[in-house]
Amino acid sequence: MRSIYFIVNPNAGNGRCRKIWDRIETLLIDEQVSFLAFYTEYPGHAKKLAGQIAAKHDGETIIVTVGGDGTLHEVMNGVTRNKNVILGFIPGGSGNDFSRGFKIPSNPVKALQVLLRLIKSDPVQIDNGKMTLADGAEEFFINNMGAGFDALIAYQVNHSPIKAILNKLSLGRLVYVYFLLKELFTFKPTTIDIAIDGKKYSFKQSWFVTVSNQPYYGGGMKIAPAAIPDDGLLDITVVHELSRWKLLLVFISVFWGKHIFFQEVKTFKGRMISIQSAEKLFVHGDGEHVGYTPLKIEIQVKSMQVLTRMQHAPEVNLEARDSNDF
Ligand SMILES: Nc1ncnc2c1ncn2[C@@H]1O[C@H](COP(=O)(O)OP(=O)(O)OP(=O)(O)O)[C@@H](O)[C@H]1O
């Protein structure tokens, strides 16, 4: 019998997650599911809790995150060495890109119903990305990472006192728009050098580079439309040599995944990626600030077990992968 744990971030989704959990907990009791639940009390707590839970068990253990992508990021970073852990997710955050990419209903009650069905079958083995920063620190991502403009905005939003105020008024999204517009006119695009499986590329006037395991990021933007979480490949997107006004156009088109048709947007697939930049750039993993460039990224193929409705990926076409020239 697999043990089931829930790690709940009551503050996720502007505090909405606490109410979501109350509802989920009642349903679990009604369904006579035996489980243990923990509330996170501070940033970083979810990672610690997940690590402690995993260390206690030799057998298969299900850890379900109830929160947003940031909480899930912490949970998966707490269990990267524990192959017996199966991850589940009930969306309770404001972004919830994991549920989009991994075919989990956005409605938390429906997500629970799906989860309770999936628990009875085998989990899906998925890839993840391992980042190694210049000081040797390692951080894993399950959705995506980014360096440059997007990571700067994520950092500013998460460290802004305005966020809490706007969140209380349910206007949390405005804070992204505010910093996007503010930085749009002050951010200095820079040269980014990228190596992908040994091939070197240099992009002048670059805004950002992202590396994705699944298509969605930033709360529904389809940044890497071709990304598949269990194909053994990461999807790289670079935005460079783009005027400030055209960046706004690209930003709008990314919700439909159509940005890839702009000549200033380059896409690749690969396993080992290194990113260096002329200027130090902010770096995020799953929307959480993790440090600065330079860094290396390496895929961890099928290294994580998740409860998801997604279908298995077809075999990887390595020839297509290697014809990345542009
Ligand atoms: N009890 C807590 N109090 C404050 N912050 C917490 C707590 N538990 C976790 N966190 C932090 O909350 C952040 C956001 O969590 P998460 O992404 O899951 O929710 P969210 O609603 O998507 O957040 P955001 O409003 O940033 O989009 C994470 O950085 C996490 O470290």
Automatic annotation (TrEMBL):
<dbReference type="InterPro" id="IPR001206">
    <property type="entry name" value="Diacylglycerol_kinase_cat_dom"/>
</dbReference>
<feature type="domain" description="DAGKc">
    <location>
        <begin position="1"/>
        <end position="135"/>
    </location>
</feature>
<dbReference type="InterPro" id="IPR045540">
    <property type="entry name" value="YegS/DAGK_C"/>
</dbReference>
<keyword id="KW-0444">Lipid biosynthesis</keyword>
<keyword id="KW-0067">ATP-binding</keyword>
<dbReference type="InterPro" id="IPR050187">
    <property type="entry name" value="Lipid_Phosphate_FormReg"/>
</dbReference>
<dbReference type="InterPro" id="IPR016064">
    <property type="entry name" value="NAD/diacylglycerol_kinase_sf"/>
</dbReference>
<comment type="similarity">
    <text>Belongs to the diacylglycerol/lipid kinase family.</text>
</comment>
<keyword id="KW-0808">Transferase</keyword>
<dbReference type="InterPro" id="IPR017438">
    <property type="entry name" value="ATP-NAD_kinase_N"/>
</dbReference>
<protein>
    <submittedName>
        <fullName>Diacylglycerol kinase family lipid kinase</fullName>
    </submittedName>
</protein>
<dbReference type="Pfam" id="PF00781">
    <property type="entry name" value="DAGK_cat"/>
</dbReference>
<keyword id="KW-0443">Lipid metabolism</keyword>
<keyword id="KW-0547">Nucleotide-binding</keyword>
<dbReference type="GO" id="GO:0016301">
    <property type="term" value="F:kinase activity"/>
</dbReference>
<keyword id="KW-1208">Phospholipid metabolism</keyword>
<keyword id="KW-0418">Kinase</keyword>
<keyword id="KW-0594">Phospholipid biosynthesis</keyword>
<dbReference type="Pfam" id="PF19279">
    <property type="entry name" value="YegS_C"/>
</dbReference>
<dbReference type="InterPro" id="IPR005218">
    <property type="entry name" value="Diacylglycerol/lipid_kinase"/>
</dbReference>
